[in-house]
Amino acid sequence: MRLSKLRVEQFKQFRSGIELDHLDPGLNLFTGPNEAGKSTLVAAIRAAFFERHRSSNVDDLRPWGESGVAPTVMLEFELDGRFYRLTKSFLARKRCELLIDGERFEGDDAEERIKDLLGFQQPSRGASKAEHWGIPGLLWIRQGDAQEIRPAVEHATDQLRGALERSLGEVAASGGDELISRVEALRLELLTAATGKPRGEFERALKQRDALSTQLAELDEQISRYRQRVDELARLRAEHQRDQREAPSRALRERLEAAEDQLRQAHERQRRLADERLRAGQIEARIRLLRERLESFAAQRLAVDERRQALTLSTQALASANAELIAWRGRLEQVDRARRLSRDQLRQARQQASRAQLTQRIERLDDELDQRQRRLVQVETAGQRARQLTELRGSNAIEASEVEALRAEQARLRELEIERRAAATLLDFTLDEHGRIELDGEALEGQGERRLLGPATLRLPGLGVLRIIPGGANLSSLGARHRELSELHAERLAKLGVDSLHRAEACLVEQRELDSEARALEATLAALAPAGVEALREECAARRQERETLIRTLAELTTEAREPALDIAAVEAEDERLDGELREVDQALRQAQLRASRAQVQCDIDERELATAQAALEAPERTARLDAGHREEAEANAELATQLARIEALERKLEADQPDIIAQDVERLKRSVQQHERRFAERREAMTRLEVELESLGAQGLEERRAELARDLAQLTRRCDELERRARALDLLLERLRDKRQRLTQRLQAPLVHHLERYLRLLLPEARLELDEGLAPVSLTRPGAHGVEHGDFDQLSFGAREQMGVISRLAYADLLKEAGRPTLLILDDALVHADESRLAQMKRVLFDAATRHQLLIFSCHPEAWADLGVAERRIPDLVHAGQGASTRY
Amino acid sequence: MIRLLHTADWQIGKPFGQFEPDEAVLLSEARFLAVERLAMLATEHQVDAVLVAGDVFDAQTVADKTLHRLFNALAGFPGPWVMIPGNHDAALAESVWRRAERLDALPANLHLCLRPEPLHLEAANLVVLPAPLTQRHTYQDLTDWFDLAATPEGALRIGLAHGSVEGILIEAIDSPNPIALDRADKARLDYLALGDWHGAKRIDARSWYAGTPEPDRFKANDAGRALLVELDAPGIEPRVTQLETGRYRWRQETRTLRVASDLDALLEWLGALGGDDVVALILEGSLDLAAHRRLEIALGQARGRARSLRVDTQALRLEPTVEDLDALAADGYVGEVIDELREQQGGSDGAVARDALALLAGLLDERREKRA
Question: Which residue of B has its CA nearest to A719?
Fold first, then answer.
């Protein structure tokens, strides 16, 4: 197919029209900036082919803001040696006209022809969509769509495959795909596509079968229960009849009665035995009493002997106790004497010791008294001196500070005097020998000088009086201050009672000496009498008194001192020992006394008891009672023997009876009878229950229902088997068909792969592009840095996918061309993501493709395509004159 | 002369699970119709009594409706019916018979022998010695007591029992409910009416199995009969006549298809099938696709005519010929698939391959017709 001319009018931004003429059969490059209308041209070509002229969904073809226009596209092209002109107008004037070598077709007819010619479809209504575009949709790459190849290929698969099959001739199965889809559909009726699990009718049948077989199992269970119950009923009836016939309960009852009778007799015997035993017990008790009495008679004689013997023993004990007592008394006296002696000695020793002590003490007191009295005298002397000092001190007390003030005042006065003298008016006079003047009453003669400290009157005899007043206030104020200070000084001296500073200083020195002495005295006093003089005096008095007391005590001591002195410690030890011994002996004596008195008491008791026993033994009625006792005992013994014989006989009988066993028999038989009767009743009840139950169950026609169910189940099972067989057959068939087809596809793809590789070699040497069954590129294999790389097509970079998209389309175009289909390639701003080297390779590819196909390339980068080997045509240059004027942007 | 109609094994309520529901219903129905025919035959031959030797019912718990329906079917013969329970309807503690009694379904002219006691039919002066089964299975001979049973002088002694005569029936070895082979002789019976064996069978001159009056399985053993027994006097051998009572012909047929004429013969045989035929057909051998189509058509037609036609084609192979393939226009890889499937028919999953092949052929055929 070769497009030679394109004219567009009233179409989007081309209001007045644009015309592309003399198109090259190979490469055509159209350039222009953005919005120049490149894509609009492409849209015009698409609209001319794809959109129905009658379509009302093509408002977007209208120039903006204009109504009542008829967007029109006219195309001229040559195909298979024939000339075609297609003119299509939309909206305001809906028309389609096709000229084929001068033959004219119009409207739908024209559109049908074009459609078949180019291999696309048109929508029955509405705007044309991608799925209708077929081969043109694949080969006409829209802006930004180059990398999106799969959908475009899918929409053209049939045509591509048709082209492939045509090239392969008889290899493909006629309608194989249709057959496969038919088998798939049939299989889908029974099995899910993905997992091959039963679905639809098959699944329903299987479920129903399972449900039925569950129901059947339940019913079988019911029937089995029913049969068991029937058997149970038969068994119960048989037992019931046997019981009625054989009446075993009656026999049991008779045996029970006999056993009860036996038991009663045994109980009677047991009661009698108990009575007899009681009687025997009574007799035995009486015999015991009788024997005791006889024994007591015998005991009386024995008692007298015993008493006598006891008396002898106690008398002996008394005698020995008394002897012991006497011995202990002697010992006591002895010890007592020794002790009295030692006491006396002890007293003497002690007095002696006291005397020595007292004497010592008095001596010491004498010393102390003497010492203190001496100190007292010293203290008193010191006290007197201190008083003297105080007196001295008190009369002329001069403070050191006062003396200091005096000194300061005197110094100041001196200074003032010097100042006054300096400021005073000097009256220097030298009188004549007889000249005499009187200054303030003082007569002055000769030569001299006077300092006038104040106004002065100078009498010049004969001459009058000169009144001299020294100048300057200073002198008078100095005089005033001198006066003041002199008065103050005099006052202070008077107060201190001294006449001069010198005297005051002398007084202060004297006073300090006195103070020093007083302090020394105070220290002496503190040493002699730390607690004060009174305390010292009291100490003396106390000692004197104590001394007198001690002297008196000493005088009172009776014993005389003697020589040699007794050793008091030895005397005391001896005394203590004797004291201990005395206590021990005394204790022993008291024990002996106790024993003696006890022995005496025992002796008395024994004597009395012996007397009593002898009295009893010698009582007059004793013999008669003894005889009677012997007689009674013999009688009782005889009676007991008879009784025991009776008991033995009864016991033997009871042993034979075994009443406990009989009681057990009775219990056992009683229970048996009860059980039997209960069982009988229960069985009757169970039978009734079963009968009722079976009647109602039987009415349900269980087995007939089961039969029906089994029949349905069998039928369903057959159905399931059939479906399964069918499913398996379909599975097998589908698998085989697909397998074969897969292999065929691989063979089919070979020519396409061949074309692809031609371009790929230019772009990526040694790379290989794999195709999927739909003929779309699916993965790329190429040598990489780490061996062969294999990657999904979708994982490639955008640029690479774009390039692959373009070369795939070129390969499809080659394939279609070989199959005699029209090919026209349009690239609208494709390959914008290619880097320089890839773009260079792509240009080689495109140039190569253009030797077989017509290519329309639209780009806004004219410089990028400068080396394509074809002159660019700028779209703005092609727009009809007046376009600009009518454009209202 | 005394005439008796001897029948057994009615198996009322029997399911026919292996059949389609509509067929099964008809086959069940046929059993009632057989009883009605028996009643008519009894009337027709003016018999003195109808002896039913057990297994009247196929199961103990049949629906009330079924019960009533059966006893109503007896109405065609007003004379005495004598019945014993068999192993399927044994007189257990609770049984179909008790229910029938409770439902008041038993007609007055029915003598139901639930206990081994002589039944004296005075009008005919014959005594029936019944051996009813009171358990489902028993291993003792319930006819023992016949030997010692006293009967009035001059009366016919007729035994009625259900079970396996020992030593005669191969299937009966070790089977329960045994009956001594010489029972008729030992018990001085004029006739022993037996049930349990579904075909009519003579044991000896006086002992017969009547068989079921309507066939119920694919077994060619003279099912579908009743016996007309004529007794002149005590001690004289009876005359036994077999009467046809069955309606449906049960057939099991195996055909091997090798050459074209085998198919022709089969088609002819199928063409002859009628509404009373119940057929199980097993096909073996191989067919080409054209023959397969012919067979399918013929089977379809036969199914429409026969009461039931079940065909087992597991062992049948499809061998498409070159002409078949041409006709199907199965070129390219589809042709390869056909070849593979054809070969695979001989393998382990041959049946699946055959089905797949048949399916493919069908689809291709369909396509061809569409194109044409």
Answer: B20
Per-residue model confidence (pLDDT) at position B157: 93
Q: Which residues of chain B lie closer than 8 angstroms to A736, CB-CB?
A: 337, 340-341, 356
By CB neighbour count within 10 A (0-12 exposed, 13-18 middle, 19+ buried), where does B358 fall?
buried
**Does the beta carbon of A180 lie under 8 angstroms from any beta carbon of chain B?**
no
Inter-chain touch B61–A174, beta carbons under 8 Å = no
Q: Do B334 and A728 touch (CB under 8 A)?
A: no
Q: What is the pLDDT along chain B (372 residues), one digit of tens a residue?
A: 899 999 999 999 888 877 888 888 889 899 999 999 999 999 999 999 999 999 999 988 888 888 999 999 999 999 999 999 998 999 888 888 988 998 899 999 999 999 999 999 988 889 999 999 988 888 888 999 999 988 898 899 999 999 988 877 665 455 688 888 899 999 999 999 999 888 888 999 999 999 999 998 887 678 899 999 999 988 899 999 999 999 999 988 899 988 888 899 999 999 999 888 999 999 988 888 888 888 989 999 999 999 899 888 878 888 878 777 777 777 777 888 888 888 888 788 888 888 888 888 888 877 777 777
Ordered DSSP codes for B161-186? EESEETTT-GGGTT-SSEE-TTHHHH
- Which of B94, B103, B340 would best serve as a mutation to test chain A binding (most A beta carbons within 10 A)? B94
Pairs of residues, one from chain A and one from chain B, whose beta carbons lie less than 8 Å apart = 151
pLDDT tens-digit series, residues B113-158: 999 999 999 888 899 999 999 888 888 889 999 999 888 988 999 9
Domains and CATH numbers, chain A: 2-148+827-843+859-886 (3.40.50.300)
Give the nearest chain A residue to B331 (CA atoms).
A173
Test A736 with B14 for CB contact under 8 angstroms: no
- Virtual CA dihedral for A134, A135, A139, A144, nearest 10 degrees? 0
Contact A726 B95 (CB under 8 A): no
Hey, what CATH topology would domain B2-244 get? Purple Acid Phosphatase; chain A, domain 2 (3.60.21)
- ipTM of the complex in this document: 0.74
**Are the Cβ atoms of A711 and B24 closer than 8 angstroms?**
yes
Closest partner residue to B333 (CB to CB) among A186, A708, A740 is: A740
- Delimit the domains of chain B by residue range: 2-244, 249-371
Sort B253 into a burial class: Cβ within 10 Å, 0-12 / 13-18 / 19+.
middle
Other C-beta atoms within 10 Å of A608: how many? Answer: 12
Intervals of chain A under pLDDT 70: 165-174, 395-396, 472-473, 558-565, 880-889
DSSP code string of A820-866:
T---EEEEESTTTT--HHHHHHHHHHHHHHTTTSEEEEEES-GGGGG
How distant is the Cα of B359 from the closest Cα of chain A, in angstroms? 8
Beta carbons within 10 angstroms of residue A305's beta carbon: 11
Look-up of token digits 């897969």 = A742
Q: Which helix (H) or strand (E) holds A778?
A: strand A777-784
For residues A92 and A32, the answer to whether their CB atoms sit within 8 Å is no
Chain A residue with minimal CA distance to B14? A707
Closest chain B CA to residue A236: B93
Amino acid identity for residue A56 in this structure = S
